[in-house]
Amino acid sequence: MPYVPVEWLREHVDLPAGTTAARLAADLVKVGLEEERIVPPAVTGPLVVGRVLTCQARKQTNGKVIAYCRVDVGSAHNDAPGTGAEPSDLPSRGIVCGARNFGVGDSVVVSLPGAVLPGDFRISARKTYGHVSDGMICSQSELGIGEGPDAESGIIVLDRWLAANGRDGEKPPAPGTDAIALLGLGEEVLEINVTPDRGYCFSMRGVAREYSHSTGACFTDPADAADENLYPHGLAPVGDGGFDVVVPRDPSPVRGRPGCDRYVARVVRGLDPAAPTPPWMRNRLTAAGMRPISLAVDVTNYVMLDLGQPLHAFDLDKLHEPIVVRRARENETLTFLDDVTRALDAEDLVISDSPDAEGSRALVLAGIFGGADTEVDERTTDILIEAAHFDSVSVARSARRHKLPTESSKRNERGVDTALAPVAAQRAVDLLIEYGGGVADPSATDIDRTVTPPTLIIRADSAQRLTGVAYGTGRVTELLETIGCAVEPAGTDGEGHELLAVTPPTWRPDLVGAAHAAEEVARLDGYDNIPAAVPLAPAGTGLTPRQRARRNVVRALAGAGLTQVLSYPFVGDVHDALGLPADDPRRRAVRLANPLTRDAPYLRTSVLDSLVEVARRNVSRGLDDVAVYEVGSVTHPAGTLPAPVPGVQSRPSEEEIAAVEAGIPAQPTHVGAILAGEREHTGVLGAGRPWTWADAVEVVRTIARTLGVSIEVAAPADPMAPWHPGRTAEVRLPGERRGGTILPGPVVGYAGELHPRVVRAFDLPERACAAEVDLEPLLEAARAAGALQVRAISTFPMGKEDIALVVDEAVTAAQVEEVIRRAAGDLAEEVRLFDVFRGPQLGEGRKSLAFSLRLRAPDRTLTAQELEDVRRRVVECAAKSLGAELRA
Fold first, then answer.
1. Considering the domain boundaries, does residue 654 fall inside one?
2. Phi, psi of 57 (to 5 degrees)
3. What's the pLDDT tens digit per position in 111-163?
4. How far apart are CA 365 and CA 344, in angstroms?
5. Domain membership of residue 8 as a residue range
6. I need a surface site. Which of 183, 373, 691, 722 has the fewest CB within 10 A?
7. Is residue 570 assigned to a domain?
8. What are phi and psi of 407, to 5 degrees?
């Protein structure tokens, strides 16, 4: 986030005297620039000018020379003669100091007890080297004001410090004078939050403009080339003498745009490599969160922070003319200023220094980070300044690809003023000449292929339509012109609405539509002027049947003792842990182009893909008994066609919308559940009971009962990962009868124990269970069945019959139950399996299934004969359909 020093901002806009960072934050928030935090001054407490009265140097036993000084720090801070920790005949304070670059009579900077220096270094009186040091004589590094005069040798001597800062002849202030103001250390700094569409606010120029919009204060554009105070000689002319730059037509443009449409190069020769950065510039860079390095580098950073145009400085002696802007080549690498060599991508835009493929070398990752080959160092005397306009998307992709979020990339990827490059380059050149003693080449290189921002035709009442505030054409025109737009009448549309032709300024590349212009009108007029009107909700029909059914399923499972969770639908290599075969269609997943995390780039194809991670996380944190479920969508890309990406210049056509919809993969709703650990805990009332495969099947039955849908449960013909091959149930919808044959219904899910390998892979309790059901066919079956049929409760007595049938081992209980229900007809109120028996008396491969039947008629008491008839029909139908025998 950008930092805004108040005094720096004052150079560009009229700030009232005494404006604090808090006041500035309150004014900027009115135009949408929110306060992130207020950074307190680097130095607080008493920091004063002192004059050295005496200085007694003594060599210590460790060989170090320590001086005990008496320093006059002003009448308000001095100890009276004969008083203090170490009485003196002079009004002064005693201070121990190890530096030796000052002497008696020098004016120095003294931090007194109670002061706090950078790094939360608190000053207090303490005894050291046999004396009481009642303060500290300060160096530049201790005050956090970087390198400069006396930085290496030690203490700030104000005579030399003033001369080095262009204040020759000025005498140091009297002892006791506040040194915080003298050194520029007492300034608060406001850190603001800038939204991605307003990159121009990453500069003092942009923030000053917004402050002017908020308060009406007079704004002076620091990028105005006609300002003789900033640019006394104007911009250098473009001529043949400029440094040769080649910007070919981009062979692989991003979004159809060239990677670079403007490139300005300026040359400054004869710089003094030892020339220091002026303290005011170092202080401003430090306040803005940047570390001063050297004059050339500091100037480029300062101009970037001030104007918003990123710059780069090359050591001219290390360049081979011409400079070439191009895309990186295959297998090309670049060693950056951080001494890390990175492999470049073919989409990366680089600055090289030769058109020859053999000799061409990448020097800079354009708009992001410089290379080590042409680094400006302590021997550099000739410099080439680059100010360019790069495609924002190209810069953003490269910065993320290489994980290089630099100050330059932050501005370039948000869009830089296309008209700013020559002005910023000239500003940097002027500063290098003034403080480095260099001489600029008379001609500039300026390759300009930028285009004028397109004119927008908008309705004059577009802001009113969105905000409800009747601004009027005059007010809309005034506000848009305030931000730099050119506004002209454009007649009326076919419905008689007044139109305006709006041309955005070059520093606002985000203004590309009527909604953006309307937002600017609302923002500048004041969001607080928009009335708070709550719209009336239209009368509706409530939830749709599908919504009601889904919510009923959620409530039913919660009522059954399960806990609902919502997991992220993004997964990684979970399919291997789930044991899915290589040809399993569930392995075919949609890969996200911009995933939240690199280890989860796919959309899940099963709810269990993400639900197992939820169960594992809970178990790993000590919750061994887990019963969780999720109702969510999965993504199946099979049959999906690639969808074209429509442009943003106009509304997509119906054909384009249809093509986009055809490219959206199927996303059915599934219900998944994982049951692990104990369902009933062991306690004083008896032994506990673990979750079993039958509980997983019951979860599916609960869903079906809630929807009023019949299902069939049977063992699957083939194993289905991630379930146990012998303890898994396949869930189907009822089959369809065609002639004398019943065709099996579609499979809608599976339930049972998880495979032991899966349980171990996810560190779940032994014999953990799971269920997953595709809710879509169940909802469709519920819709096809229509309204739930409710019968009156019969008040007549119930008849009970128990029937034990001996069948082959391959016959399932569900098949027998279906036959019994069909034979009993409407009289069957309940059919329940209560016993399974196997024994030698039944024969090899045979088993006995005992069912309890509850029979009741709605209009009469059943007779003994009717009960006997039901029993007979059940036995006959079971024998005919399943080869069953009545067990004696």
1. no
2. -95, 135
3. 999 998 887 889 999 888 888 899 999 988 888 776 544 454 578 898 888 87
4. 9
5. 3-41+187-215
6. 373
7. no
8. -60, -35
